[in-house]
Each structure stands twice: as C-alpha cells, then as structure tokens.
Amino acid sequence: MRDTASILPLAVNGLVFEAGGRRLVDGISLTLPRVGLTAILGPNGAGKSLLLRLCHGLIRPTAGQVRWATDGGSVAGVRRHAMVFQKPVMLRRSARANVLHALAATGAAGRERTERADEALERFGLTAFAGRPARLMSGGEQQRLAIARAWALRPEMLFLDEPTSQLDPGATRQIEQMLAALRAEGVTLVMASHDLGQARRLADRVLFIDRGKLVEDRPAQAFFAEPESQEARAFIAGDLPW
Q: Residue 84: beta bridge partners?
C-alpha cells in the first residue's frame, strides 16, 4: 500500500501565525511520529484548527517551519497527507464522482482511479450510495464519504478537524470506529476535538493548546489522569470554555 520512503515524522519548529495584529499560534514546536492518534485539545479560539491547517500546508505560517521527512510531504510525486474538515466539502456530483475527482488530482490512471474509488466506497460501507448526489446525503454519510475520499489517496497522515462535532451519537460512533480501524491499519491520525470523551476513547497522545501556545504534550492516559498545567486542569473540569 505504501512506498518504502515515508513522509513522517513531521517536525514543527517555532510555528507562528499572526492575523489582524494578533498572534493566534505562538511559537509551537513538536514532532508528529509515524504511529497512533494525536488529539489536539483546547478551549474555543485556542488555535486547534489553525494548527491543523498550518501542519497540512493549507495556510502559510508567519514564522517557523513545518518539515516533512520527504520534500513537501510527498512520495513519488504524490502528496501523502490529507485532511477531513468539520463540515465536509462536497462537489455537486455523485458520491463516487467525488472520490474519483480527488484521485484524478493525484494523477492516478483511469482504471486505477475506478478501482480505488470503488474500494474506498466498499471499505466504508458506501457502495449503495455511489450514485447518490453527495450533497443530498446525511451529515454522517457525508463525513464517512469525506474519510473514504481521503483514504482513497493512501495517506500516511490524516488530519481531522472536529470530524464528529455536527453528528448525532450513532453517526459519531460509526466515525470513531472508522478512525480506530485506520489507526490499526497504520494511518497516523491528528485530530482536533472539543470532545473529551472522544479523546479519552481514541487518543494515544494529547497536545493541549491555549491562546495559541502549546501547554502540554503528553501521552493521553497521563494527560487525563494528572494534567500538569493549571489550564489543562481547568479545561478538563469544564472551567475553560470548549
């Protein structure tokens, strides 16, 4: 499934992002390894989504560096990281055509595109929805399609921005099961979430950020059992806004 070369680990050094005269991400440094699920936690406005976008390359930092183990986070000319947003971005096409379009952007050949699109839809239980307009699918179905579309690209790292925040409990459980399966298959996951229960269930590691600063970077079990910072303790106790 993967080339021998790896785009990971991802090294973030002194990352800064400023907008409107405010420093929204403030000197964050960390390394994202090749395994597991890292949850990015913090109150509203802490910079969780910004950090994801900076790491993915959707926006440029004001200062600092995001460095993949290979040039540009690609192997054999194909980018090997993908992102799933809180509200899925769907084209005005069928579910299958949405996956095919993403694969076409990688330069995959026609037959390969078709095989990988059908494999992705089957893998995530969406074969019956293949011909349905993606924008008419339910929120949970759209999020499953967004993950299937990303998985079809064969990413080593998948960024997820609060992927279940708009879903009901049943759809949330389905997405969590999908993420657990991807992690077991070796896909490295980085997920911003406001859901402490979800982070407890899924995360191997927690990055806790507050006001743009990285406050804690610890194994998830240790973070929840005994947070080191006053800010993290307040957040877990519900004294900081989510």
A: 160
pTM of the shown model: 0.93
Binning pLDDT at 50, 70 and 90, where does residue 52 land?
A: very high
CB atoms within 10 A of CB 77: 8
Radius of gyration (Cα) for the chain, nearest Å?
Answer: 18
SS (H, E, C) 213-240: EEEEEEEHHHHHHCCCCHHHHHHHHCCC
In degrees rounded to 5, what are phi and psi of residue 221?
Answer: -60, -40
* pLDDT tens figures, 69-81: 988 788 877 789 9
Rounded CA gap, 129 and 152, in Å? 16
CA distance 80 to 59: 17
Single-letter amino acid code for the residue at 23:
R
Integer Cα distance of 194 and 56 in angstroms: 20
Indicate the pLDDT class of residue 1, thresholds 50, 70 and 90. Answer: very low
Half-sphere exposure of 219 (CA within 13 A, CB side): 3
Domain annotation for the chain: domains and CATH numbers: 35-55+73-237 (3.40.50.300)
pLDDT score, position 170: 93
